[in-house]
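G., the chain you wanted modeled:
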Amino acid sequence: MSIKLFVTDLDGTLLPKGQNVPDANIKAVRDMVKAGVIFTIATGRMYCASVEIAKNLGVDVPIITYNGALIKSVGGEVFHTDYLDPTLIVEIVNFCEARQWHLQSYSNDELYYPEYNDFAKGYEAALNIAKGRAIGWDGLRQCTENVPKLLSISSSAEETAKRIEALKAAFGDRINAIRSNAEYTEITQPQVSKAAALKILADKWNIDNAEVMAIGDSYNDLPMLKAAGHSVAMGNAPADVKAACEFVTDDCKDDGFAHAVYKYVLI
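Predicted structure as tokens:
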């Protein structure tokens, strides 16, 4: 197979959670780019929390952020945006406040919380990012400009599943509510996904889907993994994510990303 577009998840795929990209993975990325492969990152993270990681790779590449709601290159070129409607944001904020769910918002690539609690502290520590701002529930209702996603953090996978079902029951097809890890419920526009963003980039460069490969480790990667012509699951991925993929590589901590590049792309 000939791969022309290669897309990777960040946390648990390209890099161990919250840590720097391993040297082996950096070399694999640079070798792909040198070989003419278009490389891109797809993540649920904020752009500002992704771009520094991408800069460390030493290549100017497009970054699919907020699970596909914003595509922007390292150099600052904007390829695509898909923001939540301000009126809908207020409805979701009201819904979460009534249930006292932790909710955080991302407006103009800035992070906001109703209060700076343990969920907020844990989020910042896990992603190694700068502190967000605590602005209260009324602040969240007013902070509605250019919001690509909202994120609710719970204390368990069971609670996350309940929240997703409750959101779907309340808002139906007006939103997309998915689990990005055991505790995270991501809320975006219904058409937003890493898969949709990947197609936007493939169409931009007239790349056939058979020449696209995706790699990831989590449930929010599944649409992208299923949509790509070829897919690789990390060794640390859940069993059902592995089952959905064509190939399975080693764990993230064992340079599974680099192994996949040299085994399936640079051959």
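The chain is about 35% helix and 20% strand.

Shout if anything looks off.
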